[in-house]
Amino acid sequence: MTITMYERVGFENRRPSPFSWRSRYAITHKGINVTYQPTRFLEADMIEQLSGQRYVPILVDGSKVVHDSWRIALYLEKQFPDRPSLFGGESALGQTRFICLWADSTLGQLIKHLIYADFIRCLAPEDRPYFRSSRETALGQSLEAACADRAAWQTRFSAACEPLETLLAEQNFIAGQAPQYVDYSVFSLFQWARLGSPQDLVREQSALAAWRKRMIGLFDGLADKFPHYPSTT
Amino acid sequence: MTITMYERVGFENRRPSPFSWRSRYAITHKGINVTYQPTRFLEADMIEQLSGQRYVPILVDGSKVVHDSWRIALYLEKQFPDRPSLFGGESALGQTRFICLWADSTLGQLIKHLIYADFIRCLAPEDRPYFRSSRETALGQSLEAACADRAAWQTRFSAACEPLETLLAEQNFIAGQAPQYVDYSVFSLFQWARLGSPQDLVREQSALAAWRKRMIGLFDGLADKFPHYPSTT
Question: Which CATH number describes the domain made up of B3-79?
Fold first, then answer.
């Protein structure tokens, strides 16, 4: 039975979604054969027919349709218990959930203010009006206004990263000696920022930069298998 | 061999230190017999002679002197492997470290602005000048000025608690179905605030309030075994 993952695709085969990235890493960690189906923002009607909601990633495994990256991770862990664990036990699972919630609500919100004005160029031109309209409604301002005071947002972002910086000076991965889903999930936000803007928001020589480099190197350089920030539109 | 833990003591037998509280919960979770040695801020010279640094908690186990609450937790886990685990595996341990760092740097810093002006009354009168002087130097302002805009700090604190609120609406403890060190460590900050101020910073009816209540009930109500906020000084 073929498993299919619908993931977000951007301008000229870019992969612009942190949620799709974390699911891709989870699948790769488990070593599962999956067909990836690139999905545009404009295909939300098709996604809704398939899954009852409008967002990717979704995983289709026979008659099972699983949406939401967290639920996909739980599904993979349950369906493939003999493959390497994404979590490492019940206590770790509970804590991973917290760290994912923290990262999305804290780092994710700040990253928007650091990349959105650039990020739109990573999407196919036809997807840009929807992106601009939906994000500007959510932000209550234009993408450009949201990103205007870069220095201030960078300061807040760096401050929010402090506990990660301290941790990663002590250990190689958030999960300890080897990466697990918590690392993929947090990394997916850095990958989103890395591919979504020409400006780096991680300080060189930091423990965070070293961790990101380790993450980029995983799975034969999976993080670099799709195009980077476009030099031209 | 008797194990001794030096923990902070305040006004009339109060226990005002979040770091001492988390070590006390760790010891209780492990079911270890320990003699507690109440320690005042003014006894820092004695603590320095014993441990080479000036802060409690410290654990003295024969010739071993362990300082810092995190290192105490690691020591207990290593020395008492047959007792219930404080972490639940390597991945959980790594993540617990992160959540402790996050909680202390984020929640801990915000709580100071919500309780410090009240909190000083939980200390013995002789300890108050040191507390005021050291904290006001660190804050760069008086305790009262740091706590002046309570509404603004409460808003920031509630926002910082959002990932915890979401998590605890899904599961009973941060570690999942049963509490572990990560719960004790985060709870110790709420316990510090709860005993250190007459004002509550947790919203009634919230998932966080329900978790705090579960935590207060643990170990035969350990959290309530010492005096609450003083009604008089």
Answer: 3.40.30.10
